[in-house]
Every structure is written in C-alpha cells, then in structure tokens.
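My main concern about presentation is that the manuscript never shows what a single data entry looks like. The format is easy to grasp once an entry is in front of the reader. For illustration, here is how one protein appears when written out as sequence plus structure tokens:
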Amino acid sequence: MEVNKYIDHTYLKAFGTKNEIKNLIEEAKEYHFKSVCINPVHVAYAHEQLSDSDVLVCTVIGFPLGANTIETKIFETLNAVKNGADEIDMVINIGKLKEKDYDYIENEINEVCRAAGDKLVKVIVEICYLDNEEIKKVSEVVGRTQAEFIKTSTGFGTGGATPEAVKIMKDHVNGKEVKAAGGVRSKEDLDAMVAAGATRIGASSGVQIMKGLQGSDY
C-alpha cells in the first residue's frame, strides 16, 4: 500500500474553523489520503467537498473522553452517518475498562457498530491511561466485536501511539486492524508504526510526512 493511503489526515482542534477544514480537504485531495478525520460539526461540509474524490470522511464519536452514555454515542453515530461520514472513530468508556466491566465495553462498541450500519468503525482505547495488561485485555474485547479497527489514542491524552502498544494490539485483537494516532509526525514515525502492525495512521502532519519533514503535534 502506498504511504498516502495509510493516512487519516486529521484536524480535531476545538477552535477549528471552516477555513482550516477547507485547507485540510484540499491537502487530502492533493495527496489522495485515505480520509480526513474531523469533528462531527464539519462532516456534512467535508462530505460535500469530497464527493468527487477518493478521500473518505472520518469523524469521531464520544470524543475525546469517551465518558458519554451509550445512547449519546448511538445518536452521534446516526447523525454522523446521516451527514455523510464514511468511517467512525469512537472512544470507549475508559473508566468502565478500568473497572474491568468488559461486558459494558463490548456492548457499547457493538451498539455504535449497529448505528454505523455498513460504515467502518475504529475503537479508540487511549493507551496513555493503560498498562500493557490493560492494552492486551481491551484488544481482546475489541476483537470480539463488530468493529474493524482498534486505535491507540485520541491525541488529546497524556501521550500518543507507541510501536510497543501497536504490537500488543496487533497480537491480541483477533485479526482486526490497528490505527496508530497521536505523535506520528514524520515518515520515520509512520514506518515504525507500520512495522509494528499498524495499517492506518492518524496524523495532522500528513503533508509533512509525505514530504519527509518533521511536523507538528497531532
């Protein structure tokens, strides 16, 4: 797979304006990235602007804390799909994971998957708050669900993706795919994540990665 098709070109800052999203979309078109990953408020606009391109529209659900109710995440997902989202990146309830309420986690993922219909779902587990055993366990839980991907990070926690965590995920997620996000700022970073098992990269530095330059934080 070509490098550009690994990248979800991302802009999730709270203060993002339509102009920033427009620029993101134009960059994604130019480099033929896999998707743009944006906040839900921008989905309809991105869908309209990308309708004649090969770039998908990805959005986030329960973002960035994951502490919304399941019902809220379902509504967000239905609304995002209605507005034109092709892919859904949902944040799990990390507190429930810490409580070892694995049934809750599995259920909320499957409920979002049902709401997403035929749209691809990625599950964000926020590894910066987890130890290796928790990363292993949550990977096993995601592996039992209808989701297609497990994803390392929101980019808004205390840390982002690491090759070590990606490898744990890949080894325990029952054949599903891994998205590495947060702190992937260069071609070297991307290569390390892919070598560890990632098949998708979330980054705001997609253009810099393609140019082989060091980018800004995710």
Q: What stands out?
A: The longest strand covers residues 56-61.
